[in-house]
Amino acid sequence: MRIRHMRISHDGGLEMKVGTIMRACRERKGYTQEHMAGLMEVDQATISRFENGRQTPDLTTFVEWVDQTESQEVAVAYLYGIKGIKIMQHIMNQREVSI
What CATH topology corresponds to 8-98? Predict the structure, then answer.
């Protein structure tokens, strides 16, 4: 199952794609693309392609990403269609708390 077609539109009409969410989760955890690649057992270029929307992760990969970045709440919000801007605000608030 691919999650490519799941997109969240926020008030500005722009689409927030899964790669944007994945990048924010990785960065919130403080991981580099290289570190994430090691955890996911893929190369850094694959991580970059996911985050930039040039490659769509399958559901298993997305779930593993969420587990590695401890971002289960973000994934649930995304999959349930909560507006992208609210997800990003949540991620940024969590990041501020951990800094």
Answer: 434 Repressor (Amino-terminal Domain) (1.10.260)
